[in-house]
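Take a look at my tokenised protein here and describe the backbone shape.
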Amino acid sequence: MSIITLTSDFGNLDYRVSAVKGKILSLNSKVTIVDITHDIQAFNLIQTSYIVRNAHKYFPKGSIHILAVDSFFHKSRKNILYKANGSYFLAADNGLLSLVFFDIKPEAIYEITLNNRFDDVVNFTSTDVFVPAAVHLANGGLPEVIGRKIDTVKELFFPKPVYNEPERMIIGEVTYIDNFGNIISNINKEIFESTGKGYENFTIKFRNLTLSKIFQSHTEVVSDWERETEYHGQSAAIFNDSQLLELTIYKGSKKNGAKSLFGLNVGENIYIQFF
């Protein structure tokens, strides 16, 4: 069974998603197509990388992932293929794949050479370049047939937290806000534990608010399940399933979650001070 996943900033109103699926099925009607999301904010590579990085690891090895974000075709920009973690990832050479795999080196990188001759016309990158390449791979074809190996691609750098030693403080930032209004930072559990050695206490600071405890899950917020409803709306910090510091409101939503109540936006700072 061949799996092709789709991630895009197309939204679901226009024809683009169905056009991509139709082209895949016209080339191979037996392929399994899975939507990761089409609700990426337009051209938002950081958001895309967070979603794909956390989603792709649940798919079988050999899956093919099309990342159609900021993918408008231009002759001066390559379209590339990463072979990484035993699967394939297709995207424009816009730095996105360097964000998805910021901590590992891909097994191979290819420039996709389909439809890149001087007289070829590409109206829609996803249907004219990504889909034929993805179906070729789904049919068992070699990447060398549709691309040439390259060493240099555009690189972007995921914002990293820093440790201010004189202030005994980790300085991180908001990188993602999920569908429940939870605020995800770039402060991971590893840096928290390594820099916090030797200190008994800490305070998480953001805007004019503070928290002094980190839970290991959303449900750990509740200490008495017979009174669970009384915990609705309680603010908390947790390490989420990606081991990133997350600010949350227990059973919050887009309308009344951490984003709404704390007022934080992507790019704003979150501080952890040890004492």
Summary: The first helix runs from residue 16 to 27.
